[in-house]
Amino acid sequence: MSNVFDDLKYVEVSFKCTLCGLCCINTRMELLPEDIERIEQLGYSLDYFAEFDEEYGVWRLRNINNHCVFFDESSKRCRIYESRPVGCRLYPLNYDDEYGVVVDKYCPQWGTVPASEVSRLKPVVELFVRRIRETNEYVRARKAGIKIRLRIR
User: Fold this and answer.
1) Do 49 and 61 meet the contact criterion of CB atoms below 8 Å apart?
2) Residue 32 needs a FRET pair 20 to 30 A away by CA distance; which of 2, 5, 76, 81 works?
3) Quick one: pLDDT at residue 153?
């Protein structure tokens, strides 16, 4: 059975990103089970790149020196860009409990996200928000020795 997160290019927001790196500073990006597995396949351990947020019950990318663990300060680029998490691919789309799917105005290029992209990816963002709660169950099962293998590309 496949899911929408199998097609990483599909979940990327089409807009005029300038690669400024602001989205990587003080990130609180949530992780899906597929993200964890994809990043571990690159040779990184979960403890290196992720941390559990007790308050919200979700796994997030770890910050080091106030930026994402994978952010290269000198080049202002992601060291795992091709394998980056789904949430990073969806940015600058965010989910607001009151307004639903919104474009984050913290991104300097927020105004270049077409309304058609927001509409196209609205169900994906909503699914992402529901699915991030499953990540802790996935991690706990793996730590208990239960082998779980996701189909990822």
Assistant:
1) yes
2) 76
3) 45
